[in-house]
Design goal:
Elements: E1 11-14, E2 28-32, H1 48-57, E3 62-64, E4 70-72, E5 75-80, E6 86-91, H2 105-116, H3 134-138, E7 149-152, E8 155-159, H4 167-171, H5 181-187, E9 204-210, E10 214-219, E11 233-237, H6 242-250, E12 256-259, H7 264-269, E13 276-287, H8 297-306, H9 309-317, E14 322-323, H10 340-343, H11 353-367, E15 374-380, H12 383-400, E16 403-409, H13 411-419, E17 425-430, H14 438-441, H15 458-469, H16 473-490, E18 493-505, E19 509-510, E20 513-515, E21 527-528
Parallel strand pairs: 2-11, 15-16, 15-17
Antiparallel strand pairs: 1-20, 3-4, 5-6, 6-8, 7-8, 9-10, 10-11, 12-18, 13-17, 13-18, 14-18, 19-21
Helix pairs in contact: 8-11, 15-16
Length: 529
C-alpha cells in the first residue's frame, strides 16, 4: 500500500488469536442473523444483515483490518495522486471468482456502472457520488460510461469530484463491489436470490440457503487469503426471538449472541462476560410527510417531544444506550479534528410534554382538526422490537391522548413498506457507512433512495451540497451543524436512542471484531478452538 488514508473505522472490541484451526478438523461457527437477509445483490442492498453477509462473500479492493484501518483486498496496493482526487489500485495476481474466472479490473468498472445506472434503481447509489460524474450518471444526465472509473490492465483508476478522506470506506461498501457481468446478466432478475445464483470472490461462499431458516457459508478455497481463514463454515440462523437465541447459546448451539439489557443478569449468573460496545446506530421514528396530517411539522414535533427517551433506555432497553435528541451518533468524527457530538449540542428537551401539547394544539389548528388524530406505526416483529414499539405507543398515548396502532412485521416486509412509502410512522434505525456526519445527513435530501419520509427541503439540499463542495474543514463543520439543526427543526424523523450493545461468546471463540463503522460482527479473523 503506497498510501494509507487516515483511520476512520473504530474498532470497539477485538478478541484476537492466531488462526490455529487452519489445517485441523472442520470447524463451524454458529451465529444468529436475526432475520432472513432481504437482498444479497451487492449493488442494490441496503440492510445491515445483508451487508454483514456480503462482507464475507464478496470483496472489494480494500477491507477493514482488525484494528480499524484498511488492508488490501482484491487490490494488493494503491496510490493516491498529490491532490487526493485520483486513486489507482493494482489488482493482486491470481484473484478468482468462485467459478474460477479471474477477478479483473473491468469487474469493478462494471459493478460501479451497474450500481449507478438509473435502470438498476439502487437506493444506495448516492454513496458513490464523490466519484466524478457519478451523480449525473445516476440522475440520467450522462451515460454510464462517463463515470470516473477506468480499467487499465490490472489497474482500477478512480477519479473523484474532490478530495474525499473517507473514500476507502465507500469503496469497501457493497454498492462499490465488483460484479461479474456475464454471470449477473445470465441470472437476470434471479441474481443473488439463491446460493447458486450468486458469484463469490470473498473468504466464504454460500453453500446452503434455506430461506427464513438458516444460511451456511463455506470457506472459499479460491480466496487469495484462504490459508489465513480459520473457520470452515459459518451457519447463520434466522431467529427473531431473543429468548430463543439465548436459550440456544446457553445450550452451546450458538457461539455468540446479542444480549438485551433485560437478560444481562442471566449471563452474569452463568459466568459469562457481556462486553458493551457502540455499533454506531441511531434509532428513530420516520414520519411519512406525504400523509396529510404528518405533513405538518408541528404534529411531528408533538409526537417526538412526547417520547420519554431516558425512560425508554432505562426501563425498556435496560442497557447503556443513550437518549438521542439529534441524528448524528456519538463517536462520529466531525471531519475537523473533533467528535461531532462533542462540539454540537442536541436540539430539544427529552420528554417535554408541555411543548408536545402546545405543538399538537397548534398543528391541529393549522390543519383544521377538531378531534385528536390517530396513527399506525410499523415495526419489526421480534420480541424486542414489539416491546419497543409498545413503549412508544404508550408514551404518546399518555402524554397526548393520541392513539397509535402498532403493526409488527418481518424485517424484509418492513423494508419493502418503507421503500413503497406505504406507512404513516415506522420505527427504524441507521448505522454509519463511514466515519463522517454526512453518513447520517445526506440521506434526507430530496429524492434520496433511503429517504423514506419523502422529506423535501431545497434549503436542506443546498446545505448538503455546500458541505459536499466545501474543502475548508472548519467551514464544512459549520455547514453540517446547520444542516442537522434544520433537520431537527423540520423533524421528518424523531431520534429516540443511540444504541449500545452487549454480547456474549463461548469461551472457545476468539478473533471476533465489533465495530461502530463497518460490518459488525466482523468474522474474518474468528477462531473456534
Amino acid at each position: 500500500m503506497a498510501k494509507k488514508v487516515a483511520l476512520f473505522a473504530v474498532v470497539l472490541m477485538a478478541l484476537l488469536a492466531s488462526c490455529s484451526n487452519v489445517g485441523g478438523p472442520a470447524v463451524n461457527l454458529n451465529i444468529n442473523l436475526g432475520n432472513e437477509p432481504p437482498n444479497l445483490d451487492q449493488h442494490t442492498t441496503t440492510d445491515t444483515i445483508s451487508i454483514q453477509l456480503l462482507s464475507l462473500v464478496v470483496e472489494g479492493l480494500v477491507r477493514y483490518d482488525d484494528k480499524g484501518g484498511y488492508m488490501p483486498g482484491m487490490a494488493e496496493k494503491w496510490e493516491v495522486s498529490p491532490d487526493g482526487t485520483v486513486y489507482t489500485f493494482t489488482l493482486r495476481k491470481g484473484a478468482q471468482w468462485s467459478n474460477g474466472e479471474p477477478v479483473k479490473a473491468e469487474d469493478f468498472v462494471y459493478g460501479l456502472r451497474r450500481a449507478l445506472d438509473p435502470v438498476t434503481a439502487s437506493e444506495y447509489a448516492y454513496i458513490l457520488y464523490p466519484i466524478k460524474n457519478a451523480q449525473a450518471v445516476n440522475e440520467g444526465t450522462l451515460p454510464v460510461d462517463q463515470v470516473g472509473v477506468a480499467a487499465d490492465g490490472n489497474k482500477v483508476i478512480y477519479t473523484l469530484e474532490r478530495p474525499t478522506p473517507y473514500i476507502l470506506s465507500i469503496l469497501n461498501f457493497p454498492t462499490a463491489m465488483p460484479g461479474n457481468q456475464a454471470f449477473i446478466e445470465a441470472q437476470g432478475a434471479e441474481y443473488a436470490s439463491e446460493a447458486d445464483k450468486h458469484l463469490y470472490n470473498g473468504p466464504y461462499t454460500i453453500k446452503e440457503w434455506l430461506h427464513s431458516d438458516k444460511i451456511v457459508l463455506a470457506k472459499n478455497p479460491k480466496y487469495w487469503n484462504a490459508k489465513n481463514i480459520a473457520l470452515d463454515t459459518i451457519t447463520g440462523y434466522m431467529i427473531a426471538d431473543s429468548n430463543t437465541s439465548i436459550t440456544m447459546f446457553f445450550n452451546k448451539e450458538l457461539d455468540l449472541v446479542g444480549v438485551p439489557g433485560t437478560r444481562l443478569q442471566d449471563f452474569t449468573d452463568k459466568g459469562y462476560a457481556t462486553p458493551t460496545y457502540s455499533d454506531g446506530a441511531v434509532f428513530y421514528l420516520e414520519f411519512n410527510t406525504l400523509d396529510p396530517v404528518l405533513a405538518n411539522a408541528k404534529i411531528r414535533k408533538a409526537i417526538s417531544f412526547a417520547v420519554d427517551r431516558a425512560g425508554f433506555t432505562r426501563n425498556v432497553l435496560m442497557d447503556q444506550s443513550q437518549p438521542a435528541m439529534s441524528i448524528v451518533a456519538p463517536y462520529i468524527s466531525s471531519g475537523a479534528g473533533s467528535i461531532f457530538r462533542d462540539v454540537v449540542p442536541q436540539y430539544f428537551n427529552d420528554h417535554d410534554v408541555a411543548a408536545a401539547k402546545a405543538m399538537l394544539a397548534e398543528g391541529m389548528e393549522e390543519l383544521g382538526l377538531t378531534e385528536l388524530p390517530s396513527f399506525s406505526m410499523i415495526s419489526d416483529d421480534g420480541d424486542r422490537a414489539k416491546s419497543m414499539a409498545a413503549a412508544i405507543q404508550d408514551m404518546v398515548r399518555t402524554a397526548l391522548g393520541v392513539e397509535f396502532t402498532v403493526d409488527p412485521m418481518p424485517f424484509k416486509a418492513r423494508l419493502q413498506k418503507m421503500t413503497d412509502k406505504d406507512f404513516q410512522i415506522v420505527f427504524a434505525g441507521w448505522g454509519p457507512d463511514y466515519n463522517d456526519p454526512m453518513t447520517f445527513l445526506d440521506m434526507w435530501t430530496t429524492g434520496n433512495g433511503n429517504n423514506h419520509t419523502s422529506y423535501a427541503s431545497p434549503a436542506f439540499d443546498d446545505l448538503i451540497l455546500k458541505a459536499t463542495n466545501e474543502t475548508d474543514l472548519a467551514a464544512r463543520l459549520e455547514i453540517l451543524k446547520a444542516a442537522e439543526k434544520m433537520l431537527m427543526d423540520d423533524m421528518p424523523i424523531a431520534p429516540v436512542y443511540f444504541r449500545m450493545r452487549n454480547w456474549a461468546f463461548q469461551e472457545n471463540i476468539s478473533g471476533v471484531v465489533r465495530r461502530n463503522v463497518g460490518p459488525d460482527p466482523d468474522l474474518y479473523w474468528t477462531v473456534k478452538k
